[in-house]
């Protein structure tokens, strides 16, 4: 079954919002929202694959500790953007 672009965007946003921990929810949702409206259908499919990775893999990617070798240029581009993403929804305040 092929999803239309808006359905795919909604699926990605939903998955980014319900990761398992509040910290990952904030990080992934912020990242997804920062790029989702700029993506074509091929990149949205890549982003969908990316947000469905397990949290440990995503944390490893974010910390640039991952040794996963991707050949898909779209996934590589998304990984690079994720590694350089520095925010969430408004960020997390650690002190006043």
Walkthrough of the structure:
This protein has 96 residues and is mainly α. The radius of gyration is 13 Å and the shape is globular. It is 60% helix and 0% strand. The chain contains 5 helices and no strands. The protein starts with a helix and ends in a 12-residue tail after the last helix. The protein has one domain: Orthogonal Bundle (DNA polymerase, domain 1), CATH 1.10.150.
Briefly characterize the structure:
The protein is an all-alpha fold and 96 residues long.
Q: Average pLDDT value?
A: 87
Major sheet: size, sense and barrel closure?
none
Q: The CATH topology is what?
A: DNA polymerase, domain 1
Low-confidence stretches: 89-96
Distance between the termini: 49 Å
Q: What does the secondary structure layout of this molecule look like, with pairings?
A:
Elements: H1 5-17, H2 22-35, H3 41-51, H4 55-62, H5 73-84
Helix pairs in contact: 1-2, 1-3, 3-5
Notable traits:
single chain, 96 residues, mainly alpha, DNA polymerase, domain 1, 5 helices, 60% helix, 0% strand, disordered C terminus
């Amino acid at each position: 079954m092929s999803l239309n672009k808006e359905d795919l965007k909604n699926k990605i946003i939903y998955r980014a919002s319900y990761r398992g921990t509040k910290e990952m929810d904030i990080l992934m949702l912020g990242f997804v929202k920062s790029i989702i409206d700029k993506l074509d259908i091929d990149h949205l499919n890549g982003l969908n694959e990316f947000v469905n990775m397990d949290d440990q893999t995503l944390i490893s990617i974010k910390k640039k500790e991952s040794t996963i070798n991707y050949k898909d240029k779209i996934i590589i581009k998304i990984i690079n953007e994720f590694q350089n993403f520095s925010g969430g929804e408004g960020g997390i305040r650690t002190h006043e």
